[in-house]
Amino acid sequence: VAVGELVDDAIVDVENIFRRLKENRQKALPEPPLRVIFEASSEVRNSIVYATLIVCLVVLPLFALSGLEGRMFAPLGLAYLVSLMASLAVSLTVTPVLASFLLPRAKFLGHGRDPLLLRGLKWLDARVLRATLRFPRPILF
After folding, report:
1. Alpha helices (H) in the chain, listed in sequence order
2. From the centroid of its chain, how far is CA 35?
3. What is the mean pLDDT of each run of 10 residues along the chain (141 residues)?
């Protein structure tokens, strides 16, 4: 969970950049990729910062522990907070720069169709959703 939390900010940013670049390629008059990346990264910036701050608030009660528990968990909490803040700094600075170098010329952005496995999973997901929405009470029970 901790490792996932550390990369979550960057994943959200890259997914939004990827989606915006893909939409931009399909426009009749595409905008410059750097502008698209800047706007896409700016869209999710507040959400990323707030989500990280909320996770930091959850860790803060560890510092109120006293005795053996406090001496054991306070350094762990501090290391976690420092790594979260470093992850946030990287996701706000390095991630958009790397995306601007790697994603604009990516060949997979132009493909209109999803890979076969993804199409199969989407088909299966749609069938399961339709079935569960038809019979919600037995499924909830």
Report:
1. 2-25, 33-59, 67-102, 116-134, 136-140
2. 20
3. 82 92 87 92 93 91 85 88 93 92 76 80 94 89 86
